[in-house]
Amino acid sequence: MTDIHLSPREISVDDPQRPSVLYVTLRQSKTDQLRKGVTLVLGKTDKILCPVSSMMSYLVVRGSSAGPLFIYLDNSFLTCDRFVEEVRRALGSAGVDP
Fold first, then answer.
1. Cα distance between residue 46 and residue 34, in whole Å
2. Per residue in 61-75, pLDDT tens?
3. Residues of the chain predicted below pLDDT 50
4. Distances (CA, A) of 78 to 22, 63, 66, 97
5. Rounded distance, CA 29 to CA 91, Å?
6. Among the residues of 1-98, which ranges form H helices?
7. Which residues contact 42 (CB under 8 A, 6 or more apart)?
């Protein structure tokens, strides 16, 4: 399972003490037919939804255990169906009709 799923080891930062850039290495994707992989680069925004600070905060809570990157407190992992359900719930809470 961890061979195909994104895991914490695919996340890195430019400076562990004061990260301003987050690197997400995708080992493969549907558009990467040669399976060379690609690295996504996300910068710090200093906004409420900053990708760098959000991921760093999540990783502190998640811990460094092996397995998929996105897991729940009960150690179950985020599936596509569960992701859609969570987004719909968040949109509904924000008053947006999902």
1. 36
2. 998 888 999 999 898
3. 1-2
4. 21, 16, 15, 23
5. 27
6. 51-62, 80-93
7. 21, 22, 23, 24, 51, 52, 55
